[in-house]
């Protein structure tokens, strides 16, 4: 046969609520446990290597002393560290290049300073020579003028002197 079961609705509802509460608590506990495990995994995989890399960067006294931290995972963090190492090497090369350029520029400035001194000396000598040439030209002009005046005085005297004998004869 047939069996008839009489159930109490309030008791069933209480059992259902109790079972649902236990299920929700189990799910919440499972989610919390999953979040804790994920946090530990993120810390181990990401945060610890990033902290090692940050400590390596902070401990730098100069750009060429970067040392790759040991035990970095083979992921983006290692690539970041390698990129940083490569960048520090490039910066060191650029610093050396700039140092050499600065030395070359210093030599060029010294050469230009020496040439500037030579040009100042040549300009002074040229100015002195110009003054001498002007003085010489003045003296030359004065000499020509004196020669012209002497010639103009000598012509009438020569005429008088050469005709003096003839004038005495006529007198």
Low-confidence stretches: none
Give the fraction of residues assigned to helices. Answer: over 70%
Instruction: Indicate the overall shape.
Output: rod-shaped
What is the percentage of strand-forming residues?
Answer: under 5%
| Major sheet | none
Number of strands: 0
List the main descriptive attributes of the protein structure presented here:
171 residues, rod-shaped, 0% strand, mainly alpha, single chain
Write a brief caption for the model:
The chain has 171 residues and is mainly alpha-helical.
Describe the structure in your own words:
The chain is mainly α and 171 residues long. 85% of the residues lie in helices and 0% in strands. The protein has 2 helices and no strands. The mean pLDDT is 84.
Ordered list of secondary-structure elements with their pairings:
Blueprint: H1 9-58, H2 76-170
């Amino acid at each position: 046969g047939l069996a008839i079961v009489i159930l109490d609705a309030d008791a069933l509802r209480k059992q259902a609520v109790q079972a649902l509460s236990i299920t929700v608590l189990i799910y919440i506990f499972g989610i919390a446990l999953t979040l804790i495990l994920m946090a530990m995994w993120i810390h181990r995989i990401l945060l610890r290597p990033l902290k090692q890399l940050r400590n390596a960067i902070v401990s730098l006294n100069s750009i060429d002393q970067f040392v790759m931290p040991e035990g970095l995972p083979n992921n983006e963090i290692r690539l970041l560290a390698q990129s940083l190492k490569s960048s520090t090497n490039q910066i060191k090369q650029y610093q050396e290049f700039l140092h050499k350029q600065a030395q070359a520029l210093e030599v060029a400035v010294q050469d230009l300073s020496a040439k500037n001194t030579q040009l100042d000396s040549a300009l002074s000598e040229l100015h002195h020579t110009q003054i001498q040439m002007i003085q010489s030209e003045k003296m030359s002009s004065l000499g020509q003028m004196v020669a012209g005046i002497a010639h103009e005085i000598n012509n009438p005297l020569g005429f008088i002197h050469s005709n003096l004998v003839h004038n005495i004869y006529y007198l």
